[in-house]
Amino acid sequence: MGKTCKVVVCGQAGSGKTALLHQLLYNNHIPGSTMFSTLEDIYVAQVDTDRGQKEKVHFYDTAGLDPTKPQLAKQYLSFADGFILVYDVTDRVSFDCMDKLKKEIDRSKEKKEAIVISIGNKCDLREVKQVDFTLANKWAQKEKVRLWEVSVSNRHSLIEPVVWLTSKITQPQGQLGSSLLLLVVVCL
């Protein structure tokens, strides 16, 4: 086990950040259950990387951002090793928030390199989907961000993005490639 990773989970209020973490870490989220607004929570987990090593990860579950002014607290921008940008595929405004968040992260990175991924949550709600996968994929390619569509009701869909992110963050120096491979997990 190497360093402890610090991952900030952010997105608009109601996008499913807390539900995603509860299902991923505890397998105890019941879709449709009442969720309460998060001010800030920190979760600690052991994540198996793609190299077969367990790494300690602190997940910082942030308060839902105001869609008119999505701005993270400055402390998150300075210490994070990685970011998970969460949007709700049934809410176009939550997706538009991702672009503003990514630009804010890029502006404040300074010398610290952080890995950023994006997760489109609630992909099982196809009949009310407002964010087309093609649109999200184009944005992700332009921003050089890995993209996954997931459903909190399918815990398995949540594991791959977190393993990938943790593996990238803890990858030995000199092995961080500049190539981008866009991997997509689509709900079935």
Describe it for me?
31% of the residues lie in helices and 23% in strands. The longest helix is centred in the middle third of the chain and has 17 residues, at 92-108. It has 188 residues and is of the alpha/beta class. The protein has helices spanning 17-26, 74-79, 92-108, 133-143, 156-169; strands at 5-11, 40-48, 54-62, 82-88, 115-121, 146-149. The chain has a 6-stranded mixed sheet, with helices on both faces. The termini are far apart. Strand 5, helix 4 (133-143) and strand 6 (146-149) form a beta-alpha-beta unit.
**What would the principal axes of the Cα set say about the shape?**
globular
- Uncertain spans, ≥5 residues at pLDDT below 50? 176-188
- Order of strands in the sheet with the most strands? 2-3-1-4-5-6
N-to-C terminal Cα separation, in Å? 34 Å
Organism: Ridgeia piscesae
GO biological process, one term: negative regulation of canonical NF-kappaB signal transduction
Keywords: GTP-binding, Nucleotide-binding
Family: Belongs to the small GTPase superfamily. Ras family. KappaB-Ras subfamily.
Care to give the gist of this entry?
The protein has helices spanning 17-26, 74-79, 92-108, 133-143, 156-169; strands at residues 5-11, 40-48, 54-62, 82-88, 115-121, 146-149. With 188 residues, it is an alpha/beta fold. It is globular and about 45 Å long.
